[in-house]
Write a structure and sequence with these properties.
Universal stress protein; 149 residues; Universal_stress_UspA; alpha/beta; single chain; Rossmann-like_a/b/a_fold; cytoplasm; Rossmann fold; UspA; 5 helices; five-stranded parallel sheet
């Protein structure tokens, strides 16, 4: 099977950068399009009532910093892809920082595979933090290549 459009969510972690390297190597072999995304929550306090009096200042500061962090991670990820010999498209995606955000973006971009890192959490850590990769696997029909730490 040949992949034409590979999507890689990047969060700035070393494992996400490892996923970028794997995806770039696949893209090089298949001459595929490689898209690197970083998700930024539009409103991280959606279910909170405490911030309404301060929302504009808090949200502006959060959003500016979150977007800068996402752009920095994408720049580093793009350099990894270039080192492999692949030009990637990068995109900050505003919306949900969730499996649904990745899956929606994959559909919007007509990706035919998602490559992502997994931190390999186990036990209590996995119970507390969950598994982003597992959520994507459960809710998409696309093939997902999980790169483990």
């Amino acid at each position: 099977m040949s992949y034409q459009n590979i999507l890689v969510p990047v969060d700035g972690s070393q494992i996400s950068f490892s996923a970028v390297k794997h995806a770039a190597e696949i893209a090089k072999v298949f001459n595929s399009k490689l898209t690197l995304i970083s998700l930024v929550a539009e409103d991280p306090f959606t279910d909170s009532d405490f911030y309404y009096n301060y929302s504009s200042a808090i949200m502006k500061e959060y959003f500016v910093q979150a977007t800068a962090n996402a752009q920095k991670a994408l720049k580093e990820a793009d350099e990894i892809a270039k080192a492999v010999g692949v030009n990637a498209e990068t995109r900050v995606v505003e919306g949900l920082v969730s499996a649904e955000g990745v899956i929606k973006t994959a559909k919007d971009l007509n990706a035919d595979v998602i490559v992502m890192g997994s931190h390999g959490r186990k036990g209590f850590q996995k119970l507390l933090l969950g598994s982003f990769a597992t959520d994507v696997l459960r809710h998409t029909e696309l093939p997902v290549l999980v790169v483990k730490a």
